[in-house]
Structures are given as C-alpha cells and as structure tokens.
C-alpha cells in the first residue's frame, strides 16, 4: 500500500532507538524526508539526525531551525526516569522525580510542538504523540501514568483548537513493547523483575499472562511504527483527536 508520504517532511523525536527508531525507518521507507531528533544518532540511511537534548528549553527553536516547515511531527521522546523506577510507590516519589518525569513526557512535547506548529499549520500537517497504556490504567509508577494522561488531553486539545486550520492530532498508546525498556536488565522490565525476585527472562515469560495481553506476546516496535505511518498519511486524513492502542489487548475497557 502506498501511504502517499513521498515528498513530505517528518520530524521524529527520540528516534535513536526503540519505537522512535522504528517510526523513523518506516516513514523513510515510505518516501518521507525524516529528521530524527535525539541525543544519539539515528542509524537509518537517508535520515537526518539532529543532535539535541529534548528536555532543554531551546530544543524546539533549534529543531525548527534545522527542519523548517514539517508535514508530520511524531513526539516519541519520553520514558520513566531512574528515580521513578526505583521508587516503591507514591510516597517515595519526590518533587524532583515528578519534575523529571513531566519534563520528559509532557513539557518537552509542549515545547517541540509549539515551535513546529506554525509550519505544521502552513502544511496542514499532523501531530502524533506517543503516549502509553499507563494513561488509561493505574500502573506503576504513578508520575509516568499521569504525565501520559496529560499528554492525551493535550493531543485532544490541539485537535480541537487547530482542526479548522487543517491540523490533525492523534495519540498512539503502546503497551509492553520489545524495546530496551522491556529487554534490557537495566530497563523498566528489569526493575520489575528485580522487585518480583526473578531473572529477566523468567519475568518476561510471565508478562503476557500477568498483564492480560490477549495476543500472548509483546508488541514489536515495527508494528507500532506501521500504525504511526498510516495515521501520518493522507489515507487517514479524517482521523483526529483519537487515541489508538497498540497493546496487544491489555486494556479491556471499551
């Protein structure tokens, strides 16, 4: 299927690994000109890496200067900071933990989107924010889930405020995905495995049943990237303001 992305300009944040890397690769394969914003380098041939600390106050201005007007913005940058992973629960989360989590998962997206929005409006473009099933369910840690819930609200607000000027805004909410967070002993799953008194491989073998993953397996980054590419394309031109789950069936509510 031709997604009609040839000649379009896309920006993907946090694109040096995981879902962001898969999204950059998918958009480039569809013919888009892709700018990958991250501290690390995006290894996809033909993709332009823009080295930037996305939590910095000048990140949006720097990125807009590199890119110019964009048709597609994928705000993928985010994650669970180490302090939040190590905390035993709500009472152990400090003000600094909350601040770091919101900088990564909400405020960075606000700044990047604000800087690129004039160009996106000129191009009648699309913003896709990568959220999490943590926005819909009370998984630990609580600071991460609430930040992602705020991101979902922001996305809906953008869709409503700027829809009459041609902008579309959507969220994609992954569940457990086979990235470093779920495959590296130092990642999120490694922390959960340690808390459960298990080795990582043993823990991961139990994840589908424990989390109620209907498909019985973790999602691959490329599967989520394929969804993002479709949503970014003109083929989904009347879709906006919605949240798309990529979780293998974890979330059971309608």
Automatic annotation (TrEMBL):
Pfam family, one: adh_short_C2
InterPro entries in alphabetical order: NAD(P)-bd_dom_sf, SDR_DHRS6-like, SDR_fam
Keyword Cell membrane attached: no
Keyword match Disulfide bond: no
Superkingdom classification of source: Bacteria
Signal peptide extent: none
Keyword vocabulary terms for this entry: NAD, Oxidoreductase
PANTHER family found in the cross-reference section: DEHYDROGENASE_REDUCTASE SDR FAMILY MEMBER 6, DIHYDROANTICAPSIN 7-DEHYDROGENASE
Record family assignment: Belongs to the short-chain dehydrogenases/reductases (SDR) family.
UniProt-recorded name of the protein: SDR family oxidoreductase
Lineage of the species this protein comes from: Bacteria, Bacillati, Actinomycetota, Actinomycetes, Pseudonocardiales
């Amino acid at each position: 299927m031709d997604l009609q992305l040839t000649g379009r300009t896309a920006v993907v944040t946090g694109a040096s690994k995981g879902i962001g890397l898969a999204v950059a690769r998918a958009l480039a394969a569809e013919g888009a000109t892709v700018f990958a914003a991250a501290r690390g380098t995006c290894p996809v041939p033909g993709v332009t890496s823009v080295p930037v600390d996305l939590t910095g106050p000048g990140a949006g201005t720097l990125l807009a200067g590199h890119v110019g007007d964009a048709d597609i913005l994928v705000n993928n940058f985010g994650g669970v900071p180490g302090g939040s992973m190590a905390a035993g629960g709500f009472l152990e989360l400090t003000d600094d933990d909350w601040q770091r989590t919101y900088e990564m998962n909400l405020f960075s997206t606000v700044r990047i989107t604000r800087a690129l929005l004039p160009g996106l409006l000129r191009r009648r473009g699309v913003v896709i924010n990568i959220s999490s099933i943590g926005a819909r369910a009370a998984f630990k840690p609580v600071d991460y889930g609430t930040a992602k819930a705020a991101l979902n609200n922001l996305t809906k607000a953008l869709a409503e405020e700027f829809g009459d000027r041609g902008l579309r805004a959507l969220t994609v909410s992954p569940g457990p995905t086979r990235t470093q967070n779920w495959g590296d002993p130092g990642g999120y799953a490694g922390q959960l495995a340690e808390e459960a008194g298990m080795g990582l491989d043993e823990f991961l073998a139990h994840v589908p049943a424990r989390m109620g993953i209907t498909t019985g397996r973790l999602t691959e980054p490329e599967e989520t990237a394929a969804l993002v590419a479709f949503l970014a394309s003109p083929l989904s031109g009347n879709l906006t303001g919605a949240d798309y789950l990529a979780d293998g069936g974890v979330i059971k509510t309608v």
